[in-house]
Amino acid sequence: MSSTTTQQGPQETRVFNPPEAFVAQATVSGMDGYNALCAEAEADYEGFWARLANEHLSWQTPFTRTLNEDDAPFYKWFEGGKLNVSYNCLDRNLTNGNADKTAIIFEADDGKSVNVSYTELHEKVCKFANGLKSRGIKKGDRVIIYMSMSVEGVAAMQACARIGATHSVVFGGFSAKSLQERIIDAGAVAVITADEQLRGGKQLPLKAIVDEALALGGCDTIKDVIVYQRTGGNVGFTEGRDIWLHDLVADQSADCEPEWVDAEHPLFILYTSGSTGTPKGVQHSSGGYLLWAALTMKWSFDIKPGDVYWCTADIGWVTGHSYIAYGPTAVGATQVIFEGVPTYPNAGRFWDTVAKHKVSIFYTAPTAIRSLIKASDVDPKVHPKNYDLSSLRLLGTVGEPINPEAWMWYYTQVGGERCPIVDTFWQTETGGHMITPLPGVTPMVPGSCTLPLPGIMAAIVDEAGVDVPNGQGGILVVKRPWPSMIRTIWNNPDRFKTSYFPDELGGKMYLAGDGAIRNKDTGYFTITGRIDDVLNVSGHRMGTMEIESALVANPLVAEAAVVGRPDDTTGESICAFVVLKQARPTGDDAKKLALELRNWVGKEIGPIAKPKEIRFGDNLPKTRSGKIMRRLLRVLAKGETITQDVSTLENPAILEQLKEAS
Ligand code: ATP
Ligand code: MG
């Protein structure tokens, strides 16, 4: 473990205050509102969380102990309490005036849409849950969900929650091998899938990949494969094991008494993206997890009864858990669920969909924003200015640090300078947002996730766990347990301890794995890159993010990733991988542009930050969730062959192109 980041910190000086009209109506309003909540948490940490858990969740049996730290870092929250997550997300909405409200607007790949009310969703989930029970699936069993974006995907998750089965959603883009590994690790009894998925006008297999995964062997625990018919494509069927979802639910009752589970009951296991190594099976609880999913909908997204909310993530990622399947339903929101891809039928699809459904809260990833900037540079017809985006009132981003220039584009071109942007820093392991501006509170600085949410004791420390002063980079930690935190790594409590609560930091501080720096004056947090991504050039420590953002600020550059490689004279030297908005240059053009960009970085940050080498590609290696895999670039920069886990890599072909100088 080594600390990351530059000593001088981000140079960003632009500040954008939340609009007054927004502040006036916000759930958490003004810095006073934020400070009051933080003070409450400081004064009585357990009392703070107990109050929120009682106010925001419905408990079948009230909890008797808020936090049990006896077996740290295996913390327990809300002991003695029993609840059901699906009851909280669905049944509650049948009696509070939301019964006829639209829960889901399903926007299909082909542009057709259907609305599903809370009453209809409840019925779907109850029948699904009864169907699962009819196959002998019960509390504590693990169920794999391998589906594309659909109402049925969310219903499958909620149905598992209803009967107390622990789900593990595997992103529908994963290969048979990745699926098999997750089935085995989770020891799952069933797979819920679809015949095929529709993406960008293409029919892509799902059921066939499940068959392939099971045929790879080792999956003997699987007794049932439940298949949702999406396209009607031809699929193989194994008698006795496979069943159509419509047959499974045909004769089921629309009532299903929820299984009341302990607050700590594992709601789901979800494997991380694999950006930094082999994915980890992150296990989450029921009570603490749901509390934070619901609360952050209100605090970070300021969700109100009239909002139309749209999170573009896939249910295969944690964002699709907390901010599609659970958070929005727990607060009775109307949300868009999108089946397709941002570039079909053209790269204006997001903006077109916002206009069509009058979306007011929009949440997406920096990688999507960067690619849509590039697309609207190439084809001005898909620029957001051609669409009516006046319904938007709040924007959000998640998944990677957002480069300040991408932030500015999002703020001005998409949000019309009237929408606060919540740059939400969090992780699969944290269950929900950790550090983010509050839209009616925090003056925003492009590229900074600003301040921790009330009750989240985030800090920056050095390698010995000692606080570093503002203005000096270090390791991001969370000093106290919080309700929605990871409980363990499935099947691997030792890896849980060493990965997140290392002895070097005293064994009780949560290690996020990211480097960060706080601004000297404001105390704002900026994520500077992964701990592994430290650059140390001639003794100067630098965050990858700062150099990448300087590159992206050049008008020619669409995306950039920076890694270090051993260097005889400087200890480490900087190698940058760059995607231009224009076609990939080669030969002399590449040399000329590389020189231009080196000088640009020298001017923006300083000569020490000049990349020694710049390689151009049509794209960068990314995880299937769209994150740049710098660990692979580090290998390429050294001129070595990749032997690491690439199971979550989206575009293996790009590695060949980036192997050597253009
Ligand atoms: P793995 O843990 O397997 O390497 P991963 O860390 O990419 O994969 P996720 O849990 O999906 O898996 O991603 C969490 C990480 O994403 C954070 O640790 C951080 O590096 C990055 N991240 C998420 N949101 C933000 C944000 N708003 N600003 C900066 N970084 C972010
Ligand atoms: Mg991670």
Automatic annotation (TrEMBL):
It catalyses: acetate + ATP + CoA = acetyl-CoA + AMP + diphosphate. It comes from Duganella zoogloeoides. Coiled coil: none annotated. Catalyzes the conversion of acetate into acetyl-CoA (AcCoA), an essential intermediate at the junction of anabolic and catabolic pathways. AcsA undergoes a two-step reaction. In the first half reaction, AcsA combines acetate with ATP to form acetyl-adenylate (AcAMP) intermediate. In the second half reaction, it can then transfer the acetyl group from AcAMP to the sulfhydryl group of CoA, forming the product AcCoA. Residues 34-89 form the Acetyl-coenzyme A synthetase N-terminal domain. CoA binds at R199, G200, G201, K202, T319, S538. ATP binds at G399, E400, P401, D423, T424, F425, W426, Q427, T428, D514, R530, R541. The lineage of its organism: Bacteria, Pseudomonadati, Pseudomonadota, Betaproteobacteria, Burkholderiales. Keywords: Acetylation, ATP-binding, Ligase, Magnesium, Metal-binding, Nucleotide-binding. Residues 546-627 form the AMP-binding enzyme C-terminal domain. It comes from the Bacteria. The keyword Ligase applies. This is Acetyl-coenzyme A synthetase. CDD domains: ACS (cd05966).
